[in-house]
Amino acid sequence: MNIKFEGIDVFYRPIFKAVGNKNRYGSVDHLFDHDCLEDEVLKEITEDDLVYFGKSFGCEPWGTDAGNIKIVRVTK
Questions:
Q1: What's the pTM?
Q2: Any idea where the domains of the chain sit in the sequence?
Q3: pLDDT (tens digit, 9 = 90+) per residue, 23-76?
């Protein structure tokens, strides 16, 4: 499943959204400033850093394995 960077939530966590559904993934171990850009996040984050967060932006992480995901770039 492909995921795209969506933004930084109010808890400074990077959030990624699945392409084609509402699933969200993120990291609680790597935190970023709210104005951080996708390129900056992707320098530090890999698929292995992400866990399943749920279906809405800013939700509580379930902490479960993200499964078979692949980050695709939104910007160049």
A1: 0.84
A2: 2-59
A3: 999 999 999 999 999 999 999 999 999 999 988 777 777 667 788 888 888 765
How far is it, in rounded angstroms, from Cα 72 to Cα 58?
A: 20
For 18, the token pair is 């699945």
Q: Nearest-CA neighbor of 61 among 52, 74, 71? A: 52
Q: Residue 46 is encoded by which pair of tokens? A: 């890999």
Q: Token pair of 68, please?
A: 């078979």
DSSP state letters, 7-75: EE-TTS-EEEEETTS--EEE-SSS---TT--HHHHHHH--GGG-EEEESSTTPPP--EE--S-EEE-S-
11-38 confidence digits (pLDDT tens): 999 999 999 999 999 999 999 999 999 9
